[in-house]
Structure formats: C-alpha cells, structure tokens
Design brief:
By secondary structure, this protein is mainly alpha-helical. It has two domains: 90 residues, no CATH class; 137 residues, no CATH class. It contains eleven helices and two strands; from the N terminus they run H-H-H-H-H-E-E-H-H-H-H-H-H. It has a two-stranded antiparallel ribbon. Helix 8 packs antiparallel against helix 9. The termini are far apart.
Length: 322
C-alpha cells in the first residue's frame, strides 16, 4: 500500500495502471451484482476483498518499472482515476460506492470539505516567508484576477478530431518538459552535494533548504501546467453540458450528471475511443447525445407504462371494494 504522497511517482502510477488492467483480466465479468469487484476496480477503487492480490501485482510491476519516471501521458493520467490519485489534496470529500451501475464510485463531500480543500490548496502556493497580509491581498484578488490558461479556449477544439485533441496535449507536454529540466538538474546536483557533505550538519542543512526550494518551484510549475489542462477540460465539460441542455437533457446533481462525464471520456480515454479517432469532437458530442436522448425517451415511455399499469391496478382494487 502507498504510505504518503512522496511515493507517488510516474513509475508507481504506471505500475498501478498495469495492476488494475491485470486484475480486470483475472476477475470474471458479472452482471448479477450491481457493482461487482471488477466494476469498482475499473473505476480506480480497489475493494478490500481484492486489496491483497492487487498489492502483490502492484509490487511486482513496480519492481519492473521503478526507473520509468518520464511524465505520464494524457491517456495514463485519465485512466482509472489516476489524476485524483496524484492529487488527493484536490478531492473535496470522501470516495464512496454508489448504487449506480454506470458510475459506481463518486465523491461525497460537504460545503466545509470544499472550503477546507480550497484553503489548503491556496496555502500551499505560498512559501513560509509569505506574510499574512500578502496572503490576504492575493486571496482577495482570486475572484477578479483569473490567470490566462496556456491552452486557451476549449471551444476551439469542437472543430478538431479526437486525434488532434490528443496531439495538442502531447505537443504542450513536449514544450513544457524543457522548462522543468533546469529544476531536475538542480535537484539531482543538490542530492549529490548533500550526500557528499557527509557529517557536516550545517552544510547539509543549507543544501536541504536549497533542495526544498528547488522542489517547490518545480512542483509549482508542474501543478500550474496540470491545473491549466484540467481547467481546459473542465471548460469543455461545461460546453458539453450546455449543448446537452439545449437538447432537453436535464442535468443536475441528482440526474443526468453523468452525461457530460461519459462524453468527455469518449474523447479522452474510454474503451472504443479509436472508433472516434478521426471524428470531429463536435460530431462525437452530437452522436453521444443522440444516444442519451433516445435512452431518456425510452425511460420516459417505460415510466409512463408503469404509471398507467399502477393506475389500472389501483382502479381495479377500488372496484373490488365496492
């Protein structure tokens, strides 16, 4: 099991993804239970009954790939809840199992959970030397000063193919990585200098402070990049919601909330994505929404039939009592 975020490396995350895929191959596909173990694992949640076997596979795979620490691809980040494993500090609540067959895992949190998570995220953006007045000044400007997203407007991708969308991310990653290289070099050199310092505590303390500063700067830039991409995808998610509402699909916290999520997965990493690889994203959204519209109409008809049958039965019972 993972004991602390310091162990979350790209190699560990890749081993986790591989372990999940192997577990899914081992477990039977069952539709008798609403949320069988295989379904939960597919959604990135390891049930207690499968934890021991999962840990065995994960440990073996990590030993094989511990040196493969290049940044994760977009597909890897969006597979099996990986992004939230990388950023547990951004989860506003607790992961729970639902009664939904399509979305068996969700996050349940309160308003206090959301406020606390946001505050903790803000505090991490500032070094220990930041004064309270500077913190208050910056947080007051959050609502009015929204930094420009390096990926631009999500609306532009509607005319792209799914392949274009993926290429756009990978091109951005390849452009971003060289900016991380100086920090990685500095961190490696500082690790070596600390090792060479031996028992010189004063020197090691000075070097450790520099190391912490370098790591914070590297992680800050990395978090900025990942945050921009998440915001970009969130904007696309909201565009899908608007289009769905325009087709009469009701979307709120209780119903229809899974529709934009499922369509976004169809563009990013859902099985069968190759079917859409050369299709424009606007067309993917249209085709997926057509499916949901038909499903909603089908459910409505079934509900109407059930209501009529219930009314007929109630009328018949009333006649029997006369």
């Amino acid at each position: 099991m993972l004991n602390g975020s310091e162990h979350i490396t790209p190699s560990w995350l890749r081993a986790r993804i591989t372990a999940i895929r192997k577990m899914m191959e081992e477990l039977p596909t069952s539709r008798e239970d609403k949320n069988p173990d295989r379904t939960l694992i597919r959604n990135g949640l390891i049930p207690e009954s499968q934890q021991k076997r999962f840990d065995e596979i994960l440990d073996y795979e990590h030993k094989l790939t511990f040196a493969l620490n290049e940044p994760l691809t977009f597909a890897e980040i969006t597979s099996f809840n990986t992004w939230f494993v990388m950023h547990k500090e951004k989860v506003c609540g607790k992961e729970i199992i639902t009664s939904s067959r399509e979305f068996p895992v969700t996050i349940k949190g309160t308003k206090e959970d959301i406020i606390r998570t946001i505050k903790e995220g803000l505090q991490q953006e500032y070094t220990a030397s930041s004064t309270q007045s500077e913190f208050q000044k910056d947080t007051q400007n959050i609502e009015t000063e929204k930094p420009q997203n390096r990926f631009g407007s999500a609306r532009k991708v509607l005319d792209w193919t799914v392949q274009d969308f993926h290429s756009y991310y990978h091109d951005a990653v390849n452009e971003f990585l060289p900016t991380q290289a100086p920090f990685e070099k500095q961190i490696t050199e500082l690790h070596q200098q600390i090792k060479d310092a031996g028992r010189d505590r004063a020197k090691k303390k000075e070097l450790n402070e520099k190391l912490v500063d370098a790591i914070l700067k590297r992680n800050h830039k990395k978090n900025d990049f990942e945050g921009d991409w998440l915001d970009f995808c969130t904007d696309l998610h909201n565009i899908i919601k608007d289009i769905a509402r325009g087709k009469g699909l009701h979307i709120d916290d209780e119903s229809g909330w899974y529709i934009p999520d499922d369509i976004l997965l169809a563009i990013t990493d859902r099985p069968g994505i190759e079917h859409y690889w050369n299709t424009r994203i606007s067309e993917v959204i249209e085709k997926e929404l057509q499916y949901f519209v038909k499903e909603m109409e089908k459910q409505k008809k079934e509900t109407n039939v059930l209501e009529l049958e219930a009314l007929a039965l109630e009328t018949e019972l009333q006649l029997l009592t006369i």
